[in-house]
């Protein structure tokens, strides 16, 4: 007969393990926002209000995220730098996304020029709380030639920077452009269909990248999701977070997600880029698997559906 103490211990152990396995089973996602802080004008909100709305939605759910700064979008002015600082002060990580958002796949863009932009952005963000040596490639493009790709891989290593990969890529920017276009024509337009399309779009991508992760890694990886510092998220990030939570996903931090070994991989693609998972799929010669189109269509499907509704 086990003693009462042993029984209690076993119950505690089993209970604990059940909790552990539930946590382990829950698919997780980390939120990251690129191109910020964005000082350009939009309908409905000032840049400061958009920044505050994003931070408020994150705070409401206790979500720790990362902001990837593109200096020329605002951090080169005191008012923009103050918005970036607010992210660090609120406990979010602040990473590097160049100065002018140049494209490493552009034939006129040299490796040296791209590396200089990383250093120039670093000089700005290193003064901020939350500063991390995390580099997010612009357009998720890591070089159109092996020389650029390997040159950046080596440079990041030398600088002590990590490639802040994305696994779950969304086309929030495309729906954001549609939202602004509609509101610029009519400031009181009913934008509910755009909100619904946006939520559906993010969910479709989340499920598709989860499937891809299982196909490639045989498991659920902690996903790192890409969104932007824009109006659509200022309005509806709250709903996006609530959607993930209500569907059983756990929200993790970028720091915790990046600790997963998958984010150390370097796919052997000549022109590396896109979601890490897509890049891996290409490297493995997976070709056009089922659902591939909806991962690379830049939100065409949702935009066409909105057009059909007269938007
Ligand atoms: Zn960007």
Task: Characterise the protein shown here.
- With 311 residues, the protein is an alpha/beta fold.
- The protein contains 12 helices and 8 strands.
- Strands 1, 2, 3, 4, 5, 6, 7 and 8 form an 8-stranded parallel beta sheet that branches.
- The protein starts with a helix and ends with a helix.
- The model is unreliable at 6-23 (pLDDT under 50).
- It binds zinc ion (ZN).
How large, in whole angstroms, is the Cα Rg? Answer: 21 Å
Number of strands: 8
Query: Number of DSSP helices?
Result: 12
Mean pLDDT: 91
Uncertain runs: 6-23
Shape: globular
What are the defining features of this structure?
binds zinc ion, alpha/beta, 8 strands, globular, eight-stranded parallel beta sheet, 51% helix, 12 helices, 311 residues
TL;DR of this structure?
With 311 residues, the protein is an alpha/beta fold. Helix content is 51%, strand content 11%. Strands 1, 2, 3, 4, 5, 6, 7 and 8 form an eight-stranded parallel sheet that branches.
Secondary structure layout plus pairing:
Blueprint: H1 4-25, E1 28-36, H2 47-60, E2 66-69, H3 78-89, E3 93-96, H4 111-125, E4 131-135, H5 146-159, E5 162-163, E6 168-169, H6 172-185, H7 192-217, E7 223-228, H8 231-246, E8 250-252, H9 254-258, H10 276-283, H11 292-296, H12 300-308
Parallel strand pairs: 1-2, 1-7, 1-8, 2-3, 3-4, 4-5, 6-7
This protein binds zinc ion (ZN).
The site of zinc ion (ZN) has 5 residues, from strand 1.
